[in-house]
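INFO  loader      accepted 1 record
INFO  loader      residues=104
INFO  predictor   begin
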Amino acid sequence: MNNWIKICNFFDIDPEDLIVKTIKGTKIAIYRGPNDEVYATAGTCTHEQVSLEDGLVTDYIIECPLHNGRFDYRTGEPKSAPVCVSLKTYEVKQVANEIYIHFN
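INFO  predictor   done
INFO  writer      dumping tokens
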């Protein structure tokens, strides 16, 4: 599994919530969507470099806890001001209950 890193277990993430882990000095946010899908993005807002760890997750949106900018965490796309730069996204795969991200 080249460049695939185990980041957490599926049940570490509450439904429609996120956790933040650090891999090689990079914060990664891992989300559990409304239909139990798992996604991963950069764990820091692109606007003011604030951790998304305390952000509000609703449907497929993460809202930054500082200025309430919103991103679609499936694509990283900004959805409301003041954010205008996309979050980096990571490919995710689930093997049994283990979650891996492609990190290079």
